[in-house]
Amino acid sequence: MLEVVFDLVAEIMAVFEADAFHAGIREVFHIAVDNFTQCKGRDPAALFAGEVIKINAHLAEKNTKLWMWGDRLIEGNDSGKGT
């Protein structure tokens, strides 16, 4: 799945001659819920961090900076977004 996303990002980066990519990554509310068998029972924070690390590593290979919103990095109860 990420390969498709990475191909799209590469096209966008080339068209705009960008050296950074804003991935957003803030609309992550239903991660590791019980009805997703691939993620069931896993730590939502670890899943989220793992995906961010993969995206950042890919962009770093292309000398591209990852930008993202920071509110999902705040503990859920502090941000009002849940755990």
Automatic annotation (TrEMBL):
Source species of the chain: Pricia antarctica
Protein name: Uncharacterized protein
Matches recorded under InterPro entries: GH (IPR017853)
Gene3D superfamilies: Glycosidases
Top-level lineage group: Bacteria
